[in-house]
Structures are given as structure tokens and as C-alpha cells.
Amino acid sequence: MTTDTIISIRNLYKVFGKDPAKAMRLIHQGMSKDELLEKTGHVIGLNNVSLDMERHRIQVVMGLSGSGKSTLIRHINRLIVPTAGQILVDGEDVLQLNPVALRALRRFKISMVFQKFSLFPHRSVFENVGYGLETQGATKSKIKETSMRWINRVGLAGFENHYPGQLSGGMQQRVGLARALATDADILLMDEAFSALDPLIRTEMQDVLLDLQNELQKTIVFITHDLDEALRIGDNIAILRDGEIIQSDDPQNILLKPADAYIADFMKDINRARVLRVRAIMKPLEPLDEGPVVKGTTTIEEALQIFAETSGDKLIITDRQGNRIGRLTVEDMIRGMRRPTAEEIHA
Amino acid sequence: MMWSNTFPQIAESTLRTLSRAIDKGYLTFSREYGAAIEAFFEPLLYFLIGFERVLLGSPWWVIIGTIGLISYAASRSWKLVLGVVLALCLIGVFGMWENTMRTMAMILVCTLLSILIGIPIGIFMSRSGRGQKIILPILDVMQTMPSFVYLIPVVMLLGIGRVPGLIAVVIYAIPPVIRLTNLGIRLVEKDALEAAEAFGASRLQKLLKVQLPLALPTIMAGINQTIMMALAMVVIASMIGVRGLGQPVLQAVTNQYFALGLFNGTAVVVLAIIFDRVTQRFGLRLQKHREGAR
User: Fold this and answer.
1) pTM above the 0.90 mark?
2) Is A241 exposed, middle or buried (0-12, 13-18, 19+ CB in 10 A)?
3) Residue A8 lies in a domain
4) C-beta atoms of B195 and A107 within 8 A
5) What is the ipTM metric for this complex?
6) Contact state of A79 with B194 under an 8 Å Cβ cutoff
7) Domain range holding A147?
8) A119 vs B210: CB contact, 8 Å cut-off?
9) Do A260 and A138 fall within a single domain?
10) CATH no. for residue B163?
11) Chain B partners of A77 at a C-beta cutoff of 8 Å?
């Protein structure tokens, strides 16, 4: 797979305070974050963040509250202007856009789903979903056709004349999702989109999203504080702490090789069998290996189930095209479950 | 006399000279520009007179029917329509039909004018912190300054009649619609605005499709208050020659006709109730999205 970067964030800084430019100079002179806060009262929201995001992939940005993740995502469509740094979307510097070009970017190229849904309470579901198209200046018939298609697609058929206040949280976020998808933008920004939903609905919405992504192949930037969610949907995960990215990697690699103790600590409560995939821990194939064939994306939990149901001692792993690429025994799986020790992390 | 016993005021003669200078200055100003300003307000006068003629010229049952229909369109409530029709009939029976029509014309024109001027000012205020800082104290003055005081310069400038009355009523009645338009827009949830922004809405699109619709209930409350204040001002405006229900009330005060005052005062109250109920119901109906909300 060739890397095709669609969003590129370079050396991004966001400083909150009275005189961010002055604070920026101090940072470049090497003043630390704590010193800056103490001496000048400025807070660093984002500290030298660089991140490349691949087209058609789900990029998760994960961090606890206050880590700067919501600030980061708002830089991509310039809802927030950085203190320093560069943001390229399809090679175009977002910070150099004039107001008209910026509006065009937001209308046609990037759409957004919000944590608290942020629907328009005075507009019906239909009018909410059609909002982006209306802003684009689409014709009435196109708005009608497209909105109805998306309302049906997210499972809200029959609710088009309801108002957001009459819907449950899960349904409201379906409206939010349909509203964002209706503009047919390439990039979808999702700011803790499912965090306000209860666990069962959250899983359901993740399924809806993954299902849609299979079909639509958008570039999705997904913000979350929930590691389970991040591991479940992310093609790549960037972990943010105090405004800095401390690890950005394939989810399986983060599980197997956390960059530091903070991340390892994060993953203490994770059910590894449910998130670790056989592809990440498989061994090279040997010529005589035979056994049940499973896909590389199978989780350990599912693989153990297959072992329990069949009599073999090996699994054959295949890639997306169905080529045999590796094998796995029960012992491999048990070893894979082991958490990295503190020494391994620091090495 | 000790300075501590009486307030050390400026000399009587100085004060007199000062007042005289102000009066004279204003008089010169009004002589110079009075005609021009009057000409400026002329279209307003024609509009008001035309409106009055329509109300007075049409048969009473056409008027009552029209008002009933408007009430229904605004409220969708037959009960309210029935109340409105009955109240208007009672006013007619007690011989106050013509004066009521004159007052109604006045109120409607004043309200229309207040809305046309007030909402744009309110929108401007909501967008500019500095604008708000400047306009708010002016509104405070407009609302607290005894209305008689600003009747004087208006009369000096434009003489006695409908237009100065109209101006006085608008000055008195416009603050609520300005204040509540400003407040309503400022209270619109930041979330909805951010969403509009994220979808690339321009300033005008944000105003027309998000801010104004969401502020509408508040703005309607402002319009309602403006109508009520305009009605309250009608009696005072009758002192400078505005015809209508105010005049008999004024007559009643000066001649101690209790019953006359009571009848016409009640007619003003009835008008107020009609306007209030109809506009409030209309405002409520604009918020249909809040029905059944959790």
C-alpha cells in the first residue's frame, strides 16, 4: 500500500493567553511549559504537533480530557487558528486561504460531527441533514434527494419531520452523521462523536461508521478518549498528552510496543484478546502447516473460539487477498497476550 | 450665608443665560431645519393617514372580520378569535369605534417602524461589543427620561400633530425590541453556531438561518413589549394632538369625567390584551420545534 497523505500537520503550536506571539518566542528559546505558565500565564494547548494522515483511512487521535485533542481537530478546518505551524489539506495550506476559499473548503471538502451533536434545534431532521447542501447552494431537488438518501442510510427513515429535541441521543448523532455525509466531503472530522452515547448505542454507532467507511472510503479523523473505541475503529492511532503526540502508530503496534509507561498504563484495563489481531502476532508459515484458515484481522478471542470448536493445533492466516501469510499456535496466542514489561518499554 | 448650609449653586443669572442659550440654539436649529425635517417625515405622515382612512373608511364588520382572520392566522385558536371579535364589538357598542381605529392605526404604524429600525440596531449590537456599550446607555436614557421632556423638542421642531406623536411613541417604545433582539442573538447556543461555521456558512447565512430563527422567540417577546409600551404612550401622545383613545382620556382628566375616562381607558386595555395575546400565541407557534422536547 503506497502512502498517500491527505492531511499533513507540521510543527503545530497553539498557545492560549494574552500575547501568544511573545510566548512563542520564549518557547523557541527553550522555555519549558511549566516555566511559561508560571512566568507569563500562557498555556500551551498544542506543543509542536506533527502528524500525517493517510487518505481513505480512519486516523484516531486519542487522549484524556485536556490533552488538546479537540483543539487539534478544529485546526484542520481552521475553526481555530494556530499560533505557529502549518496545516496542509491535499497539499493546500489551510492557513493561507482567503475567507471565500476557506468557506469552500468547509462546504465541499471537510465536514464535521460533534460531541454534543450540535444540531440545529429549529430545523427538522430533514432540514438538518440538508443544511450542508443548502450552504453549498445546491438545488432544492438535489437537497431533497440527497438528504432523504442519507436519512434512510443511517436508519432514520420516517423521522425526517421530527425535530432534534424529539429524538434520543443515538438518533440525534445519526442525524449529525447524515448531515456530515450529505455534503459528500472527502474528509470527515469526528470530535468525540460517540462519547456522549451510552455504551450499547456507542458500539452500535461504531458499527454504523465502520460499515459506512467500508463503502465510502472517506478520510476520517476521529477524536476519542476511549481506548477501546480507538482500537476498534482506528487504522492508525495518535496518542496525545498535554498537547504533545507521544506515539502515533498502527493500533497493534501500540498494543505490542507502547512508547512509554503512560501508554502502557493506559492499556492496563484493555481486554487484549478482544483487540489484538492474529496478524500482529503470527509466525512465519512453514511448508507442511495445515489447519483452519482465518483472516489476519481476526481477534485472538475469535481465534480461540475456532480452536475450541476444531481439533487442530494451528491456524493458517491469510491476508486481504486470501494469500496464506502465516500460522499461529495456541502457545503463540498465549504469549501474545502477555503485556510488555517496564524494562521492555523503556528499552 | 455659609456654603455648608446651602448647596453652592451657580448664580441664578448664569443659569438663566445658559437655559436661554440652549433654548435659543435649539430654536434657531428648528427654524433652520424644521421644514426639511418635516419634509423628511412626510411619507410617514401619508402612510399613517392612509392607514387611518382605510380603518375608518371600511365598514365595521369588514374590519372585525379581518382582525378575526389575522388573529386566527397568527394563533390557530378559535377561542382567541371569539374573544377578539366580542371585545371589538363591545368597544363599538360603547361608541368608541372611531377612536379605537385611530389608536390602532397609530399603534400598528409605530410598531412597524420600531421593528424596522429596532431589529437592525439589535443585530448590530449583538455583533459589536463596542456598539453594545454605546447603545445600551442610550436605551436606558430613552426608557427613563420622562416622556414629557422629549415631547418638548419634538413639538418645537415639528409642531403639534400626528408625526411628532409618532416619533415620541417610537422613542418610548423601541428599546425592548432592540434589547431583546440583541439578547436573543447573543444567547444562541455556541454549538449550533460552530456547526454552521464548520459547514462553511457565511456571516449572512449564519444570521438568517441560525441566529435569527433561534432568537425569534426572544425577539417576539421584544415586539410584544414594544406594542404594550406604544399603547401606554398613546394617552400621553394625545397631549400633542394625536387623535384616538387618548384624547377622551385627557378630556376626562381635565374635566373630572370619571366614566368617560374609565370607558376609554378600558378600550386601551382591551386593545392591549388583543395585541398581547395574538402576538404571544404567534411567538409560541414559531417554536413548534420545542414541542415534545425532552
Assistant:
1) no
2) buried
3) no
4) no
5) 0.85
6) yes
7) 55-81+98-270
8) no
9) yes
10) 1.10.3720.10
11) 198
